Amino acid sequence: MAAALALLALLAAPAVAGDEAAATGREAAAPTDAAALPDAPYRRTGWGFGGVPALNYNSDDGFGYGILGTVYRYDGHTAPYSSATTFQVFMTTKQVHSHKVVFDAVDAFGLPLRINAKAQLEVYRTANFCGFGPEVSCDPEVAASEAEALGLSGEDAADFEHRYYLYRYVRPNGYLQGRWKLREEPAKVEVFGGWRGAMHLPGDLQTVGPYPGSLYAEVFPEGEKGFLSVLQVGLMGDTRDFEPAPTHGWWVEGSVRGGGPWIGSRWSYFGYNLTARNYLPLARGGRLSLANRLVHDGIVGDVPTQEMTTVGGSTPYSAWGGQDAGRGIRWARYIGRFKLFEQAELRWRFVDFAVARVPVALSLHGFADVGVVGEDWCREHLAAAFGHLLPGEGGGLRVAIDENFIIRADVGVSALEDWAPGIYINVGNLY
């Protein structure tokens, strides 16, 4: 997403109200041990807010516009906040929509219970589909030869070639998850579980079905229509010093998930996820740190393409390729039931200042993502997966507003995409 980074800190400055709102005039400190910081945001009571206008342009989606913001509630002792409600309204001139509300409550109802919920509407016209497995090429010459075989020329041929490796969908979706804290020390241990569901509708707001003649239409002539319903349970352990921007500690989790007709799902499958994250301080005060995420995710059974690109766990996201996993590679280019990947970031918090008495911290980072994707679990597909490493690398900037509200901007490249840069702007650290 292309945006004016120099304006983000001013545009996102939180408004604060409450009994201790004046505390925002303090000098910001690098979070080393959140529980020991007297000036940590959660130490006050009242409300906080962070938000940015969402503006972008690309040839696939057109000009995009909207707003993204989070409202925080602080009770003076619950870290990193008592509750947070994030909202996003976003659309483009080519009818791409992404509207959502996300709610996060810590120690809900005075219990050791954390509740996460989301409701979202996605309308997408430029999802990538180059096939399955690690050997897909997305070769534009293949698209050109298909256009020629159909007798297309001029703008018709150009339009066909542009859409040959794309598919479109409308996807209302949401989830509800609870995390019950079993203990706090020496590591926080939580059991979690919940449900998520999505209605998969091929097409867009005007047309039903895949793009005619596209690769996706060849594989799925009618698209993949139906409701996916998924239950998940898992266990996690956490010693991070400061959840929004940790500098030391670890966070590990394991989970299983599945769906079937017994919970209203068209598709029946079983999946699992193992994730380990580690944070290592390399300089005093945590201003220089190394963050790693190692993930193994597997699926057995029948799932739609969109689910095959989804990594399970406490926070589902897309892989391999795109802003969450595989930066520098087009979004979800590599699709398969077997995923193994490692991500590393070297993070340097280099300056702290205040804007209108609101503390702001800037950080630079370099990253490397490398993944393995197998189309399926047979020996041939796994051998192909480990024979094709899928790397991406790059760097970027983090802007932390009042410690909790973090804007990240990454630029990634990959030899797999002929070093064409991918630009990603979003809220919060990846891990």
Task: Please describe what this structure looks like.
With 431 residues, the protein is mainly beta. It has a single domain (5-120, 172-195, 225-427), classed as Porin, CATH 2.40.160. 10% of the residues lie in helices and 50% in strands. It contains 6 helices and 19 strands. The protein has helices at residues 8-11, 140-149, 154-163, 215-219, 305-308, 379-386, and strands at residues 16-17, 45-58, 62-75, 83-92, 97-105, 113-128, 166-183, 188-202, 226-238, 249-259, 269-281, 288-301, 310-311, 317-318, 338-355, 358-374, 390-401, 405-413, 422-427. The chain has a 17-stranded antiparallel sheet. Strands 13-14 form a two-stranded antiparallel ribbon. Helix 2 (140-149) crosses helix 3 (154-163). The protein is globular, with a radius of gyration of 22 Å. The relative contact order is 0.13. Residues 1-38 have low confidence and may be disordered.
